[in-house]
Amino acid sequence: MNYDRIKEKLNILADAAKYDVSCSSSGSNRKNKNGLGNSSGTGICHSYTPDGRCISLLKILLTNHCIYDCAYCVTRKSNDIKRAAFKVQEVVDLTINFYRRNYIEGLFLSSGIFKSPDHTMERLIRVAKKLREEENFNGYIHLKSIPGASDELMYEAGLYADRLSVNIEIPTREGLKLLAPDKDRKDFLKPMKKVRNEIDKYKSEKKIIKSTPTYAPAGQSTQMIVGATQETDAEVMYTATYLYKKYNMKRVYYSGYIPISYDSRLPAIGTEVPMMRENRLYQTDWLLRFYGFSIEELLNKEHPNLESDIDPKLSWALRNLHLFPIDINKADKQLLARVPGLGMKSVYKILSGRRYRKLGWEHLKKMGVALNRSKYFITCSSRNFETKDYTPQQIKQRILSEGHSKYQKTLSNQLNLFG
């Protein structure tokens, strides 16, 4: 084996893979049966960059050759970059060697599209199949499904991968048509539908036949690039909500566009990466999935974009001051979850604590409640109520003046496996 050439390929193809953030691994329950590696029910051991992106997997492209010319993609065919391609066995060997050196716990494998979607998908599957059947590897495998791949290949991929993902890429049909005219949105949705149907089928058959082969136990995910086109935050989140409901997505990831092209259709090179916007979209996603909010409450015609200086829950609360204050000793779980500064852990602590006593400010402090925000929206076992006659703008300014952002403008860096 030419180790220098392998190292060169890895540097090229790992760097090209860093733009894909949809590599979460939690949710798989593949067990180790006298093989190599393990992917437990709680997911593998993660490492994260400062902005929260997963780097615990060997994350590479099979190749950065591509037949498409998507303006937003670094591997587009018109881009003058150094090209490389791994052989199937090279990816298998790298995965096993890095696992044994304790660098990784699994593999995230994507690829540029060469020759055809089916040809590319077949090679991705061959890597996973070799790892499972020849190397007896039971660690986590995430395969990036290729838009336009056949249903038969999508089915086979799910037999070997823990998670599958097809990136929707651009949030709107119009944006995709503008920046990737060779692609059709239905080619992204077709594999998603197949995966959803196969997962549903597996769950149904597993109840009757215990030996039914496992299919994509960690589900499927997708990713949207934000900031490459002029879509609003409402358009982004309405698309995400549709994907969650229609295709049972485990996660939708949001990736701030990193300017890589002088194409006039795109933000100019040097334009700031919209990391704060990305962060606000994730917060909104969390509110929709775990806090009982509807998309219309957070984003609508009157408020099509999220505020950059405050989080979406606080923004909603300030627009709905008529619903506050609420009494933390009486309000139900759903109302408590809507109070700025109250996370679900705090909500459950309040529900538990108030069974034994009336809760006051000191009790809330001991529970770790973020009173710098929540005190303007709640009453408790105390005569003091903070909001008094404050306007929404006054509350906002007071919160901003009392708080500080932990947010740092950092970009994701791929783990250097030779460092």
Distance between the termini: 21 Å
Summing up helix and strand content along with how strands pair, one would put the structural category as: alpha/beta
Radius of gyration of CA atoms, rounded to a whole number: 24 Å
Q: Helicity, in percent?
A: 25-40%
Count of distinct strands: 8
The largest β sheet comes out as: 6 strands, parallel
Low-pLDDT parts are 38-55, 406-419
Note the overall shape: globular
Number of helical elements = 15
User: Mean pLDDT across all residues, rounded?
Assistant: 87
Q: Report strand order across the widest sheet.
A: 1-2-3-4-5-6
Percent range for β-strand residues: 5-15%
User: Would you list the SSEs in sequence order as H and E?
Assistant: HEHEHEHEHHEHEHHHEHHHHEH
Can you tag this structure with a few keywords?
419 residues, alpha/beta, six-stranded parallel sheet, two-stranded parallel sheet, 15 helices, disordered C terminus
Can you offer a commentary on this structure?
The protein is α/β, with parallel strands linked by helices. Helices cover 39% and strands 8% of the residues. It has 15 helices and eight strands. Strand 2, helix 3 and strand 3 (140-144) form a beta-alpha-beta unit. It is globular and about 75 Å long. The model is unreliable at 38-55 and 406-419 (pLDDT under 50).
Summarize the structure.
This protein is α/β, with parallel strands linked by helices and 419 residues long. Helices cover 39% and strands 8% of the residues.
